[in-house]
Amino acid sequence: MSETNSAAEVAAPHRYTAALAADIEARWQDFWDEQGTYEAPNPTGDLAGDAERLARPKKFVMDMFPYPSGAGLHVGHPLGFIATDVYARHLRMTGHNVLHTLGFDAFGLPAEQYAVQTGTHPRVSTEANIENMRRQLRRLGLGHDRRRSIETIDPGYYKWTQWIFLQVFNSWYDEEAKKARPIDTLIAQFETGRRQTPDGRPWSALSAREQADVLGEYRLAYASDAPVNWCPGLGTVLANEEVTADGRSERGNYPVFKAKLRQWNMRITAYGDRLLEDLDALDWPEAIKLQQRNWIGRSEGARVDFRVAVDGTAATGTDNASGDKKITVFTTRQDTLFGATYMVLAPEHDLVSGQDSIVPAAWPEGTHEVWTGGHATPAEAVAAYRKQAAAKSDVERQADAKEKTGVFTGAYAVNPISGDRVPVFIADYVLMGYGTGAIMAVPAHDSRDFAFARAFELPMRCVVEPSDGRDTDPATWDDAFDSYDAKIINSSGEHISLDGLVVNDAKVKATEWLAANGIGEATVNFRLRDWLFSRQRYWGEPFPIVYDEEGVAHALPESMLPLELPEVEDYSPRTFDPDDADTQPETPLSRNEDWVNVELDLGDGAGRKRYRRETNTMPNWAGSCWYELRYLDPNNDRALVDPANEQYWMGPREGQPTGGVDLYVGGAEHAVLHLLYARFWSKMLYDLGHISSSEPFHKLYNQGMIQAFVYRDQRGIAVPAAEVEERDGAYYYQGEKVSRVLGKMGKSLKNAVTPDEICAEYGADTLRLYEMAMGPLDVSRPWDTRAVIGQYRLLQRLWRNIVDEATGETTVVDDAEPDQDTLRALHKAIDGVNQDLANLRFNTAIAKVTELNNHLTKAGGPLARSVAERLVLLIAPLAPHIAEELWRKLGHTDSVVHQPFPVADPAYVVDETVTCVVQIKGKVKARLEVSPTISEADLEAAALADPAVVAALGGAGIRKVIVRAPKLVNIVPA
Fold first, then answer.
1. What is the enclosing helix (H) or strand (E) of 593?
2. What's CA 31's distance to the chain center, in Å?
């Protein structure tokens, strides 16, 4: 402490300092907890009560689920939390019953990694992290209803995550009803014969295993062999977001391969249309809606069957003599079928491996050498290429700029519309995750197919008439020609002609012909894939599923939930040779034989039997897909949520036809996965009658990011930002020049600033104000610790305007009436701040409070009590601790939190005069001070009579006068 500051504090012992702020903040945080200040009542249950507050309009305000990191918070993390807190406080003061709380998304890989490295149980490290994060958030004065806080790792919570999984497992999507229904309704259709079994046998004639297989084709949660990202070096399957663009693991940089493993999936694709349609009812940023629409990727087209030619026989497309194997494609350009000169399968396609393989023993006679990849047999060529493709990421495989690779399978298919034999290739630019994993290649009219055809010397046929001046011979082209407006040519055959039709008419005719001949139909396809719901890890929710001796999956009865995670001696996945793609994962749960192998009576009439538990765990998305519902009723052990509580907080209402949370704030990085999964689960629970809201989040707001400068030495290694010196526009660390770029804030970048540091130096209210004042909430902005002091000084001036720094009393406040200038400044601030807080414009709200406080400081003399009280109420949502302290010092005994927000008097909000600009030929010639209610006629007369305007016109006539009262007059001379 400097001598100057020390002397000032002796002279002013009650000055607002960091020490005083710390004392004030701790006292009021304790008071809020003791009094339950932020507790929001429910209509029913153990949180019910307070009928008066329940009668108010309700608002449910939420932040995206935080993950409790061991590194704790840096100042970038609480930006959104502070914003929702300010917004929620303003809502309380404007007469709302506000639910605002925060929980922790605590399952996931980081805690498991830490357990592997240190031997610390994931629960121990996670709970310690949660406790630290709770402490940091409490220090910021966040007004959360702490009774409602939840943790996904609590068995009392994940009991209901498991329960929801069982709802999904025991449901199917009824296309006729356009909704999910209990699986029993499907079984009833099979039993009565209303729905036929796949082979036509009666339902009762199917074995239990056969019935289970049939139902698995309909269940919304089902197990199947799915292509996954298998990382032998880590011994686990990785989510797409855990794989780098070059096909390696984000953690450890090991190679990642595509492999097929038995996995749980959720049939989110059944909801594709509804997920698209209901976006229109949501108050979300258009950019986020667009990302969801693109991710869902709805496209209308046709399913087309290409039969596989047997022994090279060229059968027609309608001739079944070509065998029973077929390649099904989805295309949006069925009008170009005559131009399909080859086909491509994804390397993972079932038709190139296993018992359904179409790969022949030898190369057909006349096979081009460039098609074989230099291999002696098709099987060798296919196996080698599959291994090569498995080592690439989907991003690499889809890169347009790369050289096209592939290999001939040795098989031919029959173009169903022309009867031509077409060779079948595999190539990595076709993915199993899109469409059917097979395409009909029309190289003349698709750039990727064009490049592949050139590389493999494949024929091209122009079937869409070029409109750009080129001829119809693709051999002369540099790239494909694509158009939806042109006419179809070269598309006549024995069975059908499309020649002369425009594209859309040709599509209709081709589709009708395909359907009439049983080789295709109009269909809708989605880019969206079913949700892969398995992880080969320990730290996640166990599946409430057991398998009998025949491998049939059975749901645990609800009475056996929660199925808790067992103890295991080793959390590490078994690792393998990083380059050995043929290995299989071993899950940590599988090592606990006493837990895995059990005898149970499932209550299904079969009695007590031996079962084997599922040893995968749910993904980290599971607990965050429904947590908004548990906030409503966190202690309910009888139901997911009481219907009355869900209806009250989230049910549909005017302007919110699908219901949902009133405001959900979080980063744009969750645009697709989390938000899409949560929407899917809400719709499923809505269909089954468990909730009244078909959408989880009505209004979504994406906050920006607090960034920080990253300093790197000549090696490119980050150096501690706090130790960098600036000299003459350059930056130095320990005497060596370093570079500076604006980037993320984080421990690894050595530029993190913790909220604890700022709170210790300035107080939590200063940190809150600074983060809210940095700029618009939805814009990223750079952190500057040196600038924090500006908001600290604002609070000091505000304190000084109300509190005598020598005595600590409010002797500088009196009961006199404020003057007119002060009243105008006050009510303009009230009006502006009220609007700004309601619309999340916190930076401009702070600017208006600052302007008012500066006016009061300059006015000098005692501050009128009526002004002082309203000033405190204005700052209360933004800086709640100092507001509570000042409110108490002004003689009030109740909390400021639930005080009515000030209301502006319209008479003082309207300016006495406004400045009107007078222009001649677009140039300003005069400025008039006029009444804000002046009529257009009076304003025109005043402008024309102004001496400066008369002089500027110089006697010239006037052709036109444009008046925009009260601020603009534009004169056009003759």
1. helix 593-596
2. 36
Query: pTM here?
Result: 0.86
Cα dihedral value 962, 965, 969, 974, nearest 10: 30
Amino acid identity for residue 511 in this structure:
T
Inform me whether the pLDDT recorded for 312 exceeds 50. Answer: no
**What sign does the CA torsion over 458, 463, 464, 469 have?**
positive
Write out the two tokens for 55. Answer: 């009668």
Q: Determine the average pLDDT of the residues in 867-881.
A: 98
Q: Output the six-digit token pair for 219.
A: 């269940």
Give yes or no: residues 333 and 478 share one domain: yes
Are 429 and 463 members of one domain?
A: yes
Would 469 be classed as within a structural domain? yes
Give yes or no for residue 241 having a pLDDT over 70. no
Question: CA 524, CA 547: separation in Å to the nearest integer?
Answer: 35
Write out the H or E segment, with its range, that includes residue 262. strand 257-266
Joined tokens for residue 51 = 């009928």
Alpha-carbon distance values, 63 to 538, 628, 662 (Å): 27, 10, 11
| Segment holding 422, helix H or strand E | strand 421-426
Query: Cα(464)–Cα(485) distance, rounded to whole angstroms?
Result: 9
Residue 396 · residue 432 · CB < 8 Å: no
Residue at which a domain ends, from 483, 506, 522:
522
Question: Could you tell me if 368 and 499 lie in one domain?
Answer: yes
In this predicted structure, the answer to whether residue 546 has a pLDDT above a threshold of 90 is yes
What is the tally of structural domains in the chain?
Answer: 4
CB 861 within 8 Å of CB 818: no
C-alpha distances in angstroms, 397 versus 231, 342, 346, 428, 480? 18, 20, 11, 6, 20
Cβ–Cβ < 8 Å for 106, 68: yes
Host H or E run for residue 302: strand 298-307
Task: Verify that 417 and 302 share a domain, yes or no.
Answer: yes
Residue 858 lies in a domain: yes
355 phi, psi to nearest 5 deg: -70, -20
Contact 524, 300 (CB under 8 A): yes
> In a 3-state reduction of DSSP, which class is residue 416?
coil
State whether 963 and 919 are in the same domain: yes
The DSSP annotation for 683-741 comes to HHHHHTTS-S-S-SBSBEEE---EEEEEEE-TTS-EE-GGG-EEETTEEEETTEEEEEE
Q: So what's the pLDDT on residue 389?
A: 87
For residue 370, the domain's CATH number is 3.90.740.10
Report yes or no: 684 and 695 within 8 Å, Cβ to Cβ.
no
What is residue 926's three-state secondary structure?
A: strand
- Distance in angstroms (rounded) separating the CA atoms of residues 652 and 660: 7
Q: What is the pLDDT of residue 783?
A: 94
Contact 678, 697 (CB under 8 A): yes
CA distance linking residue 630 with residue 147, whole number of Å:
12
CA distance 713 to 721: 11
Q: Could you give the count of Cα atoms lying within 13 Å of 128 in the half-sphere of its Cβ?
A: 10
Q: Is-contact 695 282, C-beta < 8 A?
A: yes
Amino acid at 835: Q
Task: Determine the Cα–Cα distance for residues 474 and 459; give it in Å rounded to an integer.
Answer: 9
DSSP state string for 872-925: HHHHTTTSHHHHHHHHHHTT--S-GGGSPPP---HHHHS-S-EEEEEEETTEEE
Same-domain status, 466 and 337 = yes
Judge if 363 and 467 occupy the same domain: yes
Reduced to 3 states (helix: H, G, I; strand: E, B; else coil), residue 388 is helix
Residues 479, 382 share a domain: yes
Q: Does residue 922 sit within a domain?
A: yes
Residue 381 sits in which domain range? Answer: 298-522
Residue 42 is assigned to a structural domain of this protein:
no
The strand ranges marked E within 50-123 are 58-63, 97-100
Tell me what the pLDDT averaged over the chain comes to: 92
**Rounded Cα–Cα distance for residues 97 and 429 (Å):** 54
Torsion of CA 737, 741, 745, 749, to 10 degrees: -40
